[in-house]
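Handoff note, outgoing to incoming analyst
You'll be picking up this chain. Sequence as last confirmed:
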Amino acid sequence: VSTQSTGSSGINAEYGGEIDLRQSKSDKVSIASRLDCARPNTFVLTILKPSQPGDRSSIITEINGKTTQTKFLMCADSREERKQWMDVINRSLQCVVSWNH
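Most recent structure output, in case you need it:
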């Protein structure tokens, strides 16, 4: 699975960092809409975190006062691979939700 982040220039770039699942807006990832990404087998994980001074709005990032919402779009090579990745990430998100309650 490759993850892409759109910078302030609007150009897609490979993301090389970590995603903190504790900041997930939802308890599961979902298939990305065609409006978010036209590539097949793409799914999205939306993160909601406190806004930082360097945060900038973009195609995938929206600043709402004190919070910043970022959509991480992840594209698998096949439908089966997408399902596998989504299952693993969704199980991980369920564990995060269970541990935080």
